[in-house]
Design brief:
With 198 residues, the chain is α/β, with parallel strands linked by helices. The protein is 34% helix and 25% strand. It has one domain (6-192): Maf protein. The radius of gyration is 17 Å and the shape is globular.
Length: 198
């Protein structure tokens, strides 16, 4: 280890896969925070500000117990037609989300933050635009038959590394942002903080 150890405050398989593939050494310890309560206190905030605040909150939940480490928090949220969507709370709710998304542009906001002790040392948010194709009820049922309950843990009701790619006509934005974390800016910050060699 070159510099401080890195703790990933998440149980997200896609975020772990991104760090693994990029050769980033880390330990994963899921953070337990009340995301809805934090969002409720951010009523007038923009989508990127909320994603960034949730990223900071996740990291800050673990950082005091690991003062020697940098703690990485990350969060994603979806906005469609100015309406913000959280993770679906049931299969029926997931189907409702997909019917609403059909034929529309999904804004996917992904953020990351690095916290040490009680200080946020870096934070960044990015956005991707995903054009959802027209989805038939037959496709939605077929999709959820294969992807539920896994997509219940995701905003946007999709895993791009699985059948989720079938939801979209086109995507504008960074592939890592779509997967749930602005990886390239994060890698730069990890180099600056000595976690990775420059």
């Amino acid at each position: 280890m070159i510099g401080p150890p890195l703790i990933l405050a998440s149980k997200s398989a896609s975020r772990r896969a991104m760090l693994d593939a990029a050769g980033v050494p880390y330990e994963a310890l899921p953070a337990d925070i009340d995301e809805r309560a934090i969002e409720a206190n951010l009523d007038d905030a923009s989508a990127p500000e909320i994603a960034e605040a949730l990223s900071v909150a996740k990291a800050a939940a673990l950082a005091p117990d690991r003062a020697d480490a940098l703690v990485l928090g990350s969060d994603s949220l979806v906005v469609v037609e100015d309406q913000r969507f959280d993770k679906p709370n049931s299969r029926d709710n997931a189907a409702e989300h997909l019917r609403f998304f059909s034929g529309k542009v999904m804004e996917l906001h992904s953020a990351a933050a690095l916290v040490r002790g009680d200080t946020c040392e870096w934070a960044h948010a990015d956005v991707a635009q995903l054009k959802v194709r027209d989805l038939s009820d037959e496709f939605i049922e077929h999709y959820l038959a294969h992807e539920w309950p896994e997509v219940g843990h995701t905003v946007g009701v999709f895993r791009m590394e699985a059948m989720g790619v079938q939801l979209f006509e086109s995507i504008e934005g960074d592939q890592f942002t779509v997967l749930g974390m602005p990886l390239l800016p994060l890698l730069g910050a990890l180099r600056e903080h000595g976690v990775l060699p420059a």
